[in-house]
Amino acid sequence: MTSLSLSHGSGVPWKRSHASPVKLVAICGIVDQVTRTDALDEIADLLPPQGLVAVDGVDGAGKTTFCDDLAAVLRERGREVVRASVDDFHHPQSVRWRRGKSSPEGFFLDSFDYERFIDRLLTPFAQGLPFQRASHDLETDEYVDPPAEVAPPSALLLVDGIFLHRDELAGRWDFSVFLDVDFAVSVARMAVRDGSPSDPDDPRNRRYVEGQRLYLTRCDPAARASLVIDHNAHRPPNRYPA
């Protein structure tokens, strides 16, 4: 079994960044299940006792699986975890496509309703008030108004999604993770999952790949995150065809 230590970088897949003593950088991927379990245990040790935690990364980085696995580790320790995703706060299609169906700028700027995301989920959760985990159903393209929930004061909100280190969100997290994955890897995963083209340069991928490149350039999420993980080696489940 590989021994992981997040406190040093000698012979292990983690090291502290010299630029920022609070930043931990993974220098190799989480590969096998034993290593992944050990890593999730150590990541769980880093999280605050309560508050807001983000798991960011490009489409196909493995964010949802990572979040679900991390939540399971935390719950095994008796911690209260609320899972949420920015995917449940999309704008309607009329807004998402207002710059054009293939627009990278539209994907980056118009995909999500951050006002509702902040006002309905992040702010009330942080203040111990009733919150909602969704405002929009992507399948029906309709706004939704789910029942409000209240979490105990010790609860951790664990949110997955793209673009979570945008300017309007970066300062809201008590801890954040960026899963670093090359587009050649992430787009291939998306092809397996969704049946989309596997080539990042395919014109049908332009909106998504170039939109996320805009985000990486403008916001530098790896520099803003509390923890960066090389997730190229992660093997997600094969979900296509259904």
Question: What topology emerges from the helices and strands here?
Answer:
Elements: E1 14-16, E2 24-26, H1 33-46, E3 51-57, H2 63-76, E4 81-85, H3 93-96, H4 104-110, H5 114-126, E5 136-137, E6 142-143, E7 156-160, H6 167-170, E8 175-180, H7 183-194, H8 206-219, H9 221-224, E9 227-230
Parallel strand pairs: 2-9, 3-7, 3-8, 4-7, 8-9
Antiparallel strand pairs: 1-2, 5-6
CA gyration radius, whole angstroms: 18 Å
Mind summarizing the main beta sheet? 7 strands, mixed
CATH superfamily, please? P-loop containing nucleotide triphosphate hydrolases
The number of E-state strands comes to 9
The structural domain count equals: 1
Low-confidence stretches: 1-22, 236-242
Order of helices and strands: EEHEHEHHHEEEHEHHHE
CATH class assignment = Alpha Beta
Structural class: alpha/beta
Walkthrough of the structure:
GO terms for molecular function: ATP binding; kinase activity. This is Uridine kinase. Residues 53-194 form the Phosphoribulokinase/uridine kinase domain. Keywords: Kinase, Transferase. It comes from Lentzea alba. The protein is of the alpha/beta class. It has one domain (14-230): Rossmann fold. Helices cover 36% and strands 15% of the residues. The protein contains 9 helices and 9 strands. The chain has helices spanning 33-46, 63-76, 93-96, 104-110, 114-126, 167-170, 183-194, 206-219, 221-224, and strands spanning 14-16, 24-26, 51-57, 81-85, 136-137, 142-143, 156-160, 175-180, 227-230. The strands form 2 sheets. Strands 1-2-9-8-3-7-4 form a 7-stranded mixed sheet. Strands 5-6 form a two-stranded antiparallel ribbon. A hairpin with a 4-residue loop joins strand 5 and strand 6 (142-143). The longest helix has 14 residues, at 33-46. The radius of gyration is 18 Å and the shape is globular.
